[in-house]
Design goal:
single chain; 469 residues; alpha/beta; Rossmann fold; Dihydrodipicolinate Reductase, domain 2; 2 domains; 10-stranded mixed beta sheet; 6-stranded parallel beta sheet
């Protein structure tokens, strides 16, 4: 793997939606911060002029928040080149090599449909464009265990593992990174972070909108593949992994892979699938579709630390709020000294991590009310984390990949271990149950978690103050 920073960035699929929505604003931010100085070569099939590419970049950045630094914007345009061509045509890769000029350590970013990953990677290898290079691959990395293994074989036939960066923008969010930091930077957490004190963990990623224009994609993926197997599993890994042996990113990756291997493979009875009313009328959706727009799971981790602790994961479209939140519920005190405490009516002691739309960490505890009686109420003390000027996920991840820093990316063994967990229920699962828009999904999902007090439903707005439950 090249030890030096990449000296060029190639964006395959540069005319697509991902580049327009996410990549161009990230590149503009990198130029403003002074972290991007190398050529940016866009590659795509349309026969666009460079002027048209520049106009698309301008439109993207204006939509994302506006051009507030004209000098930086001009510097970005000056870095951009464009190569059009068919990925199945060797002449396309010859043109790419010519556009690279003197650059010898390129980073190839594949912002293209997964069906083209193998084609482009093989083309890079055949053209000699993989030597001293890095490849950045967008999720999903496969759609099941077999396809993930096949794609890994293709990628490893051309690039060494430490030059392959499997990107998941979710891991680039500041709030996600803070989970890892909060866990291992604070000594008070470790004594209670195990099966002896934690009764259950639940993670909710809810969206108040539907599939929109992504009906065709959702028909090929569904909620389990689109959100849970990658985004929510990554959160589980950060919360549940053992302390890494050191600070190098490879040691973090090793612990994450070990954790995925310890998750018990899912069975159909561990899963509830749902589909919002009206999904089958969306564009590009089959009239008899059984694709899930909602999914809830119950996981168990067969490890010394987490044996017997249930982990509940859910995500869905057209739920009441757009938010991502984690609730780590602690076991009640061993003796009920006070009549009003630990009465089974709602949550007691817990840690709450809110990841979006804002970042919070909350700790809930019972506090005595004034008076002679020993009665109290549940109060939550929390930190509201707002850091102006923080890097966007794509800005951080592209910069890290070009530097060869793999701590926020996913390794081959972790990808395959995560697919192994869901392999059975991808093929054998219950039918998707209908649910009304604006509700928290099918009622059957409540039964999945009933033994542990029910779901914690996050709100779509930030909390304020010292909360009373």
């Amino acid at each position: 793997m090249p030890k030096s920073d990449s000296d060029a960035l190639l964006v395959y699929g540069v005319t697509g939606d991902l580049a327009h929505k996410m990549i161009f604003p990230a590149l503009y931010a990198m130029v403003k911060r002074g972290t991007l100085h190398v050529p940016v070569i866009g590659v795509a099939f349309p026969k666009w002029s460079l002027e048209r590419v520049h106009k698309r970049v301008e439109h993207s950045i204006k939509q994302a928040g506006g051009i507030d630094d004209k000098a930086a914007f001009k510097r970005l345009l000056a870095l951009i080149k464009y190569v059009n061509g068919d990925y199945n045509d060797p002449n396309t890769f010859a043109a790419i090599k010519q556009a690279l000029g003197k650059a010898r350590r390129p980073a190839h970013y594949l912002a293209i449909p997964p069906s083209l990953f193998g084609t482009v990677i093989k083309g890079l290898g055949a053209a000699g464009l993989a030597e001293n290079a890095r490849v950045i691959v967008e999720k999903p990395f496969g759609r099941d265990l077999a396809s993930a293994r096949a794609l890994n074989r293709v990628a490893r036939s051309v690039f060494p593992e430490d030059s392959i960066f499997r990107i998941d923008h979710f891991l680039g969010k500041e709030a996600i990174m803070n989970i890892l930091y909060f866990r291992f930077a604070n000594s008070f957490l470790e004594p209670i972070w195990n099966r002896n004190y934690v009764s259950s963990v639940q993670i909710t990623l809810s969206e108040s909108f539907g599939v929109g224009k992504r009906g065709a994609f959702y028909e090929s993926a569904g909620c389990l593949r689109d959100v849970i197997q990658n985004h929510l599993f990554q959160i589980v890994a950060l919360l549940a992994m053992e302390p890494p042996a050191g600070r190098h990113f490879s040691e973090v990756q090793t612990e994450k892979a070990t954790l995925f291997k310890a998750i018990r493979p899912l069975k159909p009875e561990d899963m509830v699938r749902g589909q919002y009313a009206g999904y089958r009328q969306e564009a590009d959706v089959a009239k008899n579709s059984d694709v899930e727009t909602y999914c809830a799971l119950r996981l168990f981790i067969d490890s010394w630390r987490w044996d017997g602790v249930p982990w509940y994961l859910r995500s869905g479209k057209y739920l009441p709020a757009t938010a991502t939140e984690i609730l780590v519920e602690l076991k009640p005190p061993p003796q009920k000294l006070f009549a009003d405490a630990a009465n089974g009516k709602g949550k007691e002691n817990y840690l709450r991590f809110r990841l979006s739309p804002n970042a919070e960490i909350g700790l809930a505890a019972r506090v005595k009310l004034a008076g002679e009686e020993f009665t109290g109420e549940l109060r939550e003390l929390y930190l509201l984390e707002q850091q102006p000027g923080e890097e966007s996920p794509y800005e951080r991840l592209l910069g890290d990949a070009m530097k060869g820093d793999g701590k926020l990316f996913t390794r081959e063994d972790a990808v395959e271990a995560a697919w192994t967990v869901v392999e059975k229920v991808l093929k054998h699962h219950p039918r998707a149950l209908p649910y009304k828009r604006g509700t928290w999904g099918p009622k059957k999902a409540d039964a999945l978690i009933a033994a542990d007090g029910g779901w914690h439903n996050p709100s779509g707005t930030a909390a304020s103050g010292f909360k009373t439950e």
